[in-house]
Amino acid sequence: MSVFFSRQCEYALRAVLYLALKPAGEMTSIKDLASNLNIPRHFIGKILQDLTYKGLLTSQKGPTGGFALALPAKDITFFHIVEAIDGVAFANECLMGFPECSEKNPCAVHNHWAGLRDNIYSMLVGKNIGEMAKEMKKPEYQTVAS
């Protein structure tokens, strides 16, 4: 599990990267995603439903159904996925949870966290998922691209 995002968000990021390597509109079954990405089937199903509800994925029922990106891969960033699953409170809130933390009234880690938070935000919006998926070196993503 990552130190920053929930397990749900981690799985969502992995699944969307996988879908980004598929031809536009091609449906991928939950079974395929679960087995290729080693994610529990019931868990990935709920995550994909949430991403569909948020407009990032499209779904189709039936034997040829599954999930696909609802938008071009170039229009989706990690930030969109994180926002849909975990929210983006990290971008605005104090790391220590102080509601009154600010430049004028900082907590002990305020200045350090501000820089880290800005770097994390830049990473999340810096590249689209199409670019990121193509950079993946993990074997389960290589077989999709070929």
Structure write-up:
The protein is mainly alpha-helical and 146 residues long. It has a single domain, classed as Winged helix-like DNA-binding domain superfamily/Winged helix DNA-binding domain (Arc Repressor Mutant, subunit A). It is built from seven helices and two strands. It has a two-stranded antiparallel ribbon with strand order 1-2. A hairpin with a 5-residue loop joins strand 1 and strand 2. Helix 1 crosses helix 3 and helix 4 crosses helix 5. The two termini are 28 Å apart. The mean pLDDT is 88.
The CATH architecture term is Orthogonal Bundle
**Number of discrete domains:** 1
Distance between the termini: 28 Å
Strand arrangement, largest sheet? 1-2
Write down how many β-strands occur, each being a DSSP E stretch of 2 or more residues: 2
For the sheet with most strands, the description reads:
2 strands, antiparallel
CATH topology name: Arc Repressor Mutant, subunit A
Oligomer: single chain
Radius of gyration: 17 Å
**Which percent range fits the helix content?**
40-55%
Secondary-structure topology with pairs:
Elements: H1 7-20, H2 30-37, H3 41-53, E1 57-60, E2 66-69, H4 78-85, H5 110-126, H6 129-135, H7 139-145
Helix pairs in contact: 1-3, 1-4, 1-6, 4-5
Features:
mainly alpha, Arc Repressor Mutant, subunit A, 51% helix, 5% strand
Can I get a quick summary?
With 146 residues, the chain is mostly helical.
